[in-house]
Amino acid sequence: MDEELGGLTEDDFVIPPVKYEYLDHTADVQLHAWGNTLKEAFEQCGMAMFAYMTEMPYVQIREVHTIEANADDLMGLLYHFLDELLFLFSVEPFLICKKLVITEFNTQEFRIVCKCYGEEFQIGKHPQGTEVKAITYSAMQIVDEPKDNKYEVFVIIDI
Amino acid sequence: MVVRQYNEELKYLEKINPYCWRIKMGFQPNMNVEGVFYVNSTLEKLMLDELKNSCRPGMTGGFLPGVKQIANVAALPGIVGRSIGLPDVHSGYGFAIGNMAAFDMADPKSIVSPGGVGFDINCGVRLLRTNLHEKDVQPIKEQLAQSLFDHIPVGVGSKGIIPMNARDLEEALEMGMDWSLREGYVWAEDKEHCEEYGRMLNADPSKVSLRAKKRGLPQLGTLGAGNHYAEIQVVDEIFDKYAAGKMGIERIGQVCVMIHSGSRGFGHQVATDALVQMEKAMKRDQIETNDRQLACARINSVEGQDYLKAMAAAANFAWVNRSSMTFLTRQAFAKQFKMAPDDLDMHVIYDVSHNIAKVEEHVVDGKMKTLLVHRKGSTRAFPPHHPLIPVDYQLTGQPVLIGGTMGTCSYVLTGTHQGMTETFGSTCHGAGRALSRAKSRRNIDYKEVLTKLESMGISIRVASPKLVMEEAPESYKNVTDVVNTCHAAGISKKTVKLRPIAVIKG
Asked: How many CB atoms lie within 10 A of CB B161?
């Protein structure tokens, strides 16, 4: 599902605004992300995780990879989505992502398809941030309140 | 979770001696046994503050304090004795970090929990000695630190340099340090000074997902990031001359190397996979726990057995990992001193595992029982004459390696008979965090930390600048408090104090 660089359009290089922050936890870190839709909050949460691993200004968009995540419930979906992203970083293609675009966001059958824009992580080019060991369900929260237009997620990552 | 006022909560806690508190039944629902935790007056305050904070109104969706987590573990099926918090205990995922618990293998309801081992399976500490003195190292300290940093791949995204393909990995997972020995990375005597002789025999690579193997392959022989490190240390104080002598530590100023690392992405993935499987097993077998994070399965279930076999493979991975870095460390020293590692007497003093579950024999209520002992952020500390410790340490007790934090000292302890009866032969594992990472980065200045380390005569090589703040000594409990509590409580005995002169970190 990989695309050549030439296949990217100008839109693909537009970097979304930052809608995430890092909250305190004694041993680990809690990602807090939000958006105008739940889909956007999920995308932002994934980008928050990558931004913890390096400094984003050093990352260029040179490759696109597609991941899929499936689960039995919404929290499981967020968990597996992040786990797939971590896997994409940990093995070939060792992708560090600058931008995530979820192309399929199915909250009935709990399925995500996401385009991941970035490049191979290279020591020397990319400053080394913190290593993420695993995603956890610990104190996970998903705020999905369309009537208040409120979409937020909270995830603790084990570092 | 039971919500009570702080002063109500305190009624369930009782200080039984200056170093030990009892957690009474009813503190959390369904407790099968009592809990206990070891603290001195300084650590006690940290522990109770954590509880007090969690009692504040509006603390929903927050984190369970360590003392509550110890009590939740006491409610797991099949637990015997007590759920034990060691002096470095702090809030973790399901189990507290610095929490140990033993489960009766003969009880069909007994469980195994990946949360009781941790994500970094067989994370541990290895200590190498040398025959060098601090004054031999001082003139070339910077070059030596740089050389170690160049030899050992560190930090996020680093890849191992030990040649390895998928087939080698399968063999390494099965054989542990026997693989390292066969491939020429370690010395035969290294194995002798390692828990389980560096190989868990029940490892079964076929129980490990392809995903875990894929994550593990590029990372074998890498240090990792976070609190992992390689340090050049010197002996600062000897408390027990006889025991130190048995370890080959003869004098103040003697140079040692400490390596703190684990099973990298491999172990993390094994744990992640098991947690998913166990959620299903819990529903099927109707296992009730107080906290969703305490995912577990009956020891005798397919999921339980598969996890133990995969965990053993991850433990073997970690030993091969530390062995690979032992090899690289010996190479770095050999190059700088233009002497063979043999001639530098670079022997492994010991290698401990502080995130692991093991089948052990213990006396419970006067009867010998076979138990599955979970140690999460806790180190085995077997007493003198225990059959599972190497012949060199039969008279001293097992060496216990307690890593400090960047810039603070580390300790070697030995196991005691009292520890064997009180804590199933377990003690602390390190300093334990006191400040959150985010708070450290806000409150601690990068340059100040580096200047302070420099003024203490410590060379530092860190891949990630952020980590310098996160891992600053101020972010941790004082390791000396932790170790002194273990010593005073009698669950292990101080032998040697080491101070760092060079730190290599992710």
From this structure: 14
